[in-house]
Design goal:
The structure holds two protein chains of two kinds. Chain A has helices at residues 2-6, 10-27, 37-47, 66-82, 96-115, 135-143, 145-148, 187-199, 212-220, 230-244, 252-285; strands spanning 54-60, 86-91, 125-130, 176-181, 203-207, 226-229. Chain A is an alpha/beta fold. Chain A has two domains: 1-30 and 255-287; 33-250, Rossmann fold, CATH 3.40.50. Chain A has a six-stranded parallel β-sheet, with helices on both faces. In chain A, 50% of the residues are buried. Chain B is mostly helical. Chain B is built from eight helices and two strands; from the N terminus they run H-H-H-H-E-E-H-H-H-H. In chain B, helix 1 (3-17) packs across helix 2 (25-60), helix 1 crosses helix 8 (191-236) and helix 7 crosses helix 8. At the A-B interface, helix 2, helix 3, helix 4, helix 6 and helix 8 of A face helix 2, helix 4 and helix 8 of B.
Chain lengths: 287, 245
């Protein structure tokens, strides 16, 4: 019996994980949500910005990390648009550009449906698109945004012609930068060392859970204002937003939280069973 | 996404997950398709978003002086990368590689020093004095940390036990010293040094465990994303959306 457990076919474990993820999505059990200061700080920071403040949202991710980063992208741009803040989107990853645009249009539609407020391209948000170079691009933005991005991507017009860009020369003129990063180039190698440390602007982050341990030290030093880590971070932001603005619906991150928790429980149970079986078979073979 | 796109994405997802049962030709097909599509996707990106705006259009605008020189310099050095395909002149590719490495190291050196060494060192020099005032983000106030703070602060846990609290500060300082002791090999790890180094191993193991936990969380998140797509979008095309999203 113990040997059977020790040599359990991994496909049985896969099956358990599949059910642990699928069933909560279908039956939607209610599990409590806790909030971390790292996410709450971003929310509070955005809440305290004056209407008309300018926020850069850098979508440094791709479809591979979309399940974790797109929900937080959507939640934060919903919040920014609701607060009547101006959004400049840019991307250090090429596949991130269409995702950033999709998030803003989806958030603008949600805002119109929920609160009847319409947003206009060029006045409320602008797309700068993808630029190759990672840290070099950030350094250029720190000196002059128009040097790095002479034209926008949607209308191919000089960015200085847009009302939103009036009075905005470089990163020192923006009130917050939000980097949603799946890896490199992203927060750890570009936005924190080259951007925030050199030009000293408030920087908030969203990242995949894998890269969160690498970024937490920047929270303690104050280089990051806040951090949304993985699907849990996105779900926290969605919930904080829905509590403050109840007409916004919760998104896919919150819908996945029960699956996340139950799948973790299943994994922990398998780890305990595996370890118990291992030690018991070892003791039997070496009495 | 239109219905055809949803079906293509769903079938490719199932093809890739079929590997969980066993390696098979359907999985191989999906895997090769992914590699090819990814490479194909990057070709127009490289042309439209890198070469055209940064090289072709500036040339067409008729650059002069230093700007023109820099464009020609960039073009020539860029082309030198391609000499790797020709063994006789492959040595020329080392020049642009050397330039890239030197430039990358130069731009990273000061930034990394400031951000990852000086700021992190500063972040490790924490007060263990319970009377020190700390900033509580939730309330935006400066309050005394430690027992003195608990008596006066409505957010006692933040002051005492959470980020910036006395206990956390002590753990961070001791953990840092212990890990550094483990990696200090000029003194034999015995006596007090041995105990500290052993504590360093424990701190490292806990941090590896936390990293692994985050990795598991990330992989499950990706599975959740695919499940939401299959049970919602894909089955939704057959009017049997199981998750109502």
């Amino acid at each position: 019996m113990l040997e059977k457990i020790s040599n359990l076919d991994r496909r049985i474990i896969f099956l358990f994980i599949a059910f642990a993820v699928a069933l909560p999505l279908i039956f939607k059990p209610k599990l409590p949500m806790s909030y971390t200061p790292a996410v709450r700080n971003i929310f509070e920071f955005v809440e305290n910005l004056e209407p008309g403040s300018v926020v850069v949202v850098s979508g440094d991710y791709d479809p591979g990390s979309m399940p974790e980063l797109y929900p937080m992208n959507l939640a934060i741009v919903r919040h920014l648009l609701k607060k009547d803040l101006k959004i400049i989107t840019m991307n250090l990853w090429a596949p991130g550009a269409p995702l950033s645009e999709q998030a803003i249009f989806e958030a603008a539609e949600d805002l119109k449906a929920a609160y009847g407020v319409e947003k206009t391209y060029g006045e409320d948000f602008i797309f700068l698109g993808y630029k190759v170079g990672g840290p070099v691009v950030i350094d250029q933005l720190g000196n002059d945004i128009a040097t790095a991005y002479p034209l926008d991507t949607r209308e191919a017009k000089p960015i200085k012609d847009f009302p939103l860009m009036k009075g905005i020369t470089n990163l020192k003129d923006v009130d917050l930068v939000v980097s949603l990063a799946a890896g490199s180039p992203g927060m750890a190698d570009s936005w924190v060392p080259v951007g925030q440390t050199r030009y000293n602007f408030p920087l908030a982050g969203g990242c995949t859970a894998v890269s969160a341990p690498e970024l937490y030290p920047f929270l303690d030093t104050g280089q990051l204002t806040g951090l949304m880590a993985g699907l849990k971070g996105a779900a926290e932001y969605e919930n904080l937003l829905a509590q403050k603005y109840p007409k916004f619906e919760l998104g896919s991150a919150s819908a996945g939280m029960a699956s996340q928790s139950i799948a973790h429980i299943v994994i922990v149970i398998f780890i305990i069973i595996g370890n118990v079986a291992f030690f018991m078979t070892r003791n039997q073979s070496n009495p | 996404m239109d219905v055809f796109g949803i079906w293509v994405a769903a079938l490719l997802t199932l093809a890739l997950y079929s590997f969980l049962y066993n390696d098979n030709p359907v999985y191989k097909l999906a895997e090769h398709l992914f590699v090819g599509v990814s490479a194909g996707y990057m070709v127009p990106i490289a042309w439209w978003q890198i070469l055209k705006p940064n090289l072709i259009e500036p040339f067409q605008a008729g650059p002069s002086g230093f700007e023109g020189f820099m464009l020609v310099f960039g073009l020539v050095f860029g082309l030198m990368y391609l000499t790797r395909f020709f063994p006789n002149i492959a040595w020329m590719s080392r020049w642009p590689i050397a330039l890239s490495v030197g430039f990358g190291a130069g731009i990273a050196l000061t930034a990394e020093m400031q951000s990852n060494i000086i700021k992190q060192l500063h972040g490790s020099m924490l007060s263990l004095n319970p009377g020190t005032e700390v900033f509580v983000p939730a309330t935006g106030e400066l309050v005394k940390q430690g027992w003195a703070g608990i008596a006066t602060s409505p957010d006692a846990w933040m002051v005492f036990g959470s980020s910036g609290g006395v206990i956390n500060n002590a753990i961070i300082v001791f953990g840092l010293v212990a890990c550094l002791a483990y990696f200090f090999f000029s003194i034999k790890h015995e006596g007090a040094m041995g105990v500290t180094a052993r504590a360093g191993i424990w701190f490292l193991m806990i941090s590896f465990g936390a990293s692994f936990g985050f990795t598991v969380m990330a992989r499950i998140s990706l599975l959740i994303g695919r499940m939401q797509f299959l049970l919602g979008d894909w089955l939704g095309t057959m009017h049997i959306n199981l998750i109502g999203m």
